[in-house]
């Protein structure tokens, strides 16, 4: 059964042409089509020329968004001894040791990001089935396994995000709020593009970038001219 589109959705889709837009123009259109009754996020959906079933074609890394995410990030930390107090003092919303591991196993999920110190990772590993499907499992590549808790907490609270390509080679990542200015969204999108280029997997052959679309949470997809974005200088996106 084909779901009937709402009048609002049809009107918004009618504003988007079937073409790749210049980056700033695409983001201005994203803002124009963010008409939901709540603060919508800005999302990027990027198809890359990789096959993540091969280990040398996987992409998992972090990006520091210069203009932030526009979201309050609830950070949980699993550590031992004085490190638990250090995490709390550094701004962690939740911090604990074995007891926190037990609570998470029993279903506690009132956090957006989990950081762990390397010495507790053998115990945290048993949470894989709970955390893995939600993308919350700490990893060294993602910057969420570290002894430097104050720096990690500060960076993620300020707008650092972990992201990865899914099994079809597509990256889905939030890069701000639709309420940001188009210029601030462009600054964040440029930082994301540069991070993806810097972390190109060694096994990626041929054309790396395939397509990039942006949208607000409830808005239509808008194609971005990826070559124009890559050609932008950092100052032009500021």
Give the SSE map.
Elements: H1 7-14, H2 23-32, E1 41-48, E2 60-64, E3 75-78, H3 82-89, E4 94-96, H4 98-105, E5 113-116, H5 121-124, H6 128-131, H7 149-158, E6 160-164, E7 170-177, H8 182-198, E8 209-216, E9 222-223, H9 226-231
Parallel strand pairs: 3-4, 3-5
Antiparallel strand pairs: 1-7, 1-8, 2-6, 8-9
Keywords: Repressor, Ribonucleoprotein, Ribosomal protein, RNA-binding, rRNA-binding, Translation regulation, tRNA-binding
Function: Binds directly to 23S rRNA. The L1 stalk is quite mobile in the ribosome, and is involved in E site tRNA release. Protein L1 is also a translational repressor protein, it controls the translation of the L11 operon by binding to its mRNA.
Protein name: Large ribosomal subunit protein uL1
What does this structure look like?
There is one protein chain. By secondary structure, the chain is an alpha/beta fold. The chain is built from nine helices and nine strands. It has two domains: 17-69 and 160-231, Ribulose 1,5 Bisphosphate Carboxylase/Oxygenase (2-Layer Sandwich), CATH 3.30.190.20; 75-157, Rossmann fold (3-Layer(aba) Sandwich), CATH 3.40.50. Helix content is 32%, strand content 20%. The radius of gyration is 19 Å and the shape is globular. The mean pLDDT is 92. It holds the Pfam family Ribosomal_L1. InterPro entries: Ribosom_uL1_bac-type, Ribosomal_uL1, Ribosomal_uL1-like, Ribosomal_uL1/biogenesis, Ribosomal_uL1_3-a/b-sand, Ribosomal_uL1_CS.
């Amino acid at each position: 059964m084909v779901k009937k589109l709402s009048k609002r959705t049809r009107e918004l889709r009618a504003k988007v042409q079937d073409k790749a837009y210049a980056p700033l123009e695409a983001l201005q259109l994203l803002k124009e089509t963010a008409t939901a009754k709540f603060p919508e996020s800005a999302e990027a959906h990027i198809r890359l020329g990789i096959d993540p079933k091969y280990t040398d074609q996987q992409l998992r890394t972090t990006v520091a968004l210069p203009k932030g995410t526009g979201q309050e990030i609830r950070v949980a930390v699993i550590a031992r001894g004085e490190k638990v107090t250090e995490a709390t003092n550094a701004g962690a919303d939740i911090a604990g040791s074995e007891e926190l591991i037990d609570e998470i196993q029993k279903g506690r999920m009132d956090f957006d990001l989990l950081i762990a110190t390397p010495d507790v990772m053998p115990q945290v590993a048993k949470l894989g089935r709970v955390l893995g499907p939600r993308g919350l499992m700490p990893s060294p590549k993602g910057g969420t396994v570290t002894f430097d808790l104050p720096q990690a907490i500060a960076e993620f609270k300020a707008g650092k995000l972990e992201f990865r390509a899914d099994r079809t080679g597509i990256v889905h990542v939030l890069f701000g709020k639709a309420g940001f200015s188009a210029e601030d969204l462009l600054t964040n999108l440029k930082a994301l593009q540069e991070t993806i280029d810097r972390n190109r997997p060694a096994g990626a052959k041929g054309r790396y970038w395939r397509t990039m679309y942006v949208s607000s949470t409830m808005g239509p997809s808008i194609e971005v001219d990826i070559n124009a974005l890559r050609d932008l200088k950092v100052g032009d996106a500021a």
